[in-house]
Amino acid sequence: MAQSLFAEPRVVTSVDDCLFYHTLDVPGYGTIHGFWDIRGNESEYLGGVDFTGTRVLEIGPASGQLSFFMERAGAEVVSADVTEDFHWDFFWELYDRIPDDLQAVFELNRDNIERIKNSYWFLHRAFRSNAKVHYGNTYELPRELGEFDISVLACILLHSKYPHRILENCARLTREKVVVVEPFRQRQLTQSSVEFLPVGKRWWDTWWGFSPKFFMDVLSSMGFIYSKVTYHTQKQFDIPE
pTM score > 0.85 for this model? Predict the structure, then answer.
């Protein structure tokens, strides 16, 4: 049963079949450009956590930049990603208000997600990684995945309609640390711990703006009572964000 939890590696040999989320220097291919360039800053990005000898649950690996970094740092990595039929939560489920072209939007989104998955497996092969991937529902992670020392959620919760449910699932399987990385929009946030963002938008691929206090309070209620907050600046399209 344990083997069925994890995906068989895809054989992806062409960059043309991929959409790269991260910029990486790849053996035999040189620099492949993606949306974000965190090369050399991975440890800072993850708050300086020591991954030596740990078992790590990663939510939403995208192209796998952090997967392969944590693996090189001494972790056994299991990444949880969505299934092929997954749809991002783009709207409230008020069925009388669903736009006519929603299916076309879903199909484009599905294609992009599959190409990002291809980029993960392309890099998994190039880096000779042993990281495993579980495709499923991050709102309902199976207990059969086992226990983890650390969970990592890097820039995924802002895109989720129910971020607390993903945190709760990770906390249920995690013994020591939950690492959360989110953009900090100092000028955007109100005095509240979390701000709802899609007001007036038709497509809501970004739901929330978080403050560190939100995660400190929620994780404390789940038993993770000690918190550490760090800040960093990374590059998008080679422009600091």
Answer: yes
